[in-house]
Amino acid sequence: MYDDWDDEDYYDEEDEDDEYYYQQQQQQRRQQQQSASLFSSAKAKQKQKSTPTKNKSSPPSEEQVRLVMGMGFSRQQAEQALKQSNNVVEDAVTLLLSSTSEKST
């Protein structure tokens, strides 16, 4: 009776849901890896400098701003956080992440 069924003819919505969930997880992992890569790159570049810029009057470099923006923040947020953190990228990102988590609670 069912001998003429092909596997291709069988449609299962659960399989489609599983595939969607899997794709979402993969996308989140890629974004996390990209953020981690950008963050570790910024950290390594910051360590290369002998001392971070401590002069609050000097603006952050374009490279520093782009590193922070690469993690999903706007230019304005990046510049403000870098100024508040004396142009230390790691501290600026920490500041931004802590402020976004406080807003979401």
UniProtKB/TrEMBL annotation:
Segments of this protein annotated with the region Disordered: 1-64
Protein name as annotated: UBA domain-containing protein
Acidic residues: compositionally biased ranges: 1-20
One Pfam entry name: UBA
Domain UBA: 59-99
Domain of life, per lineage: Eukaryota
Compositional bias (Low complexity): 21-61
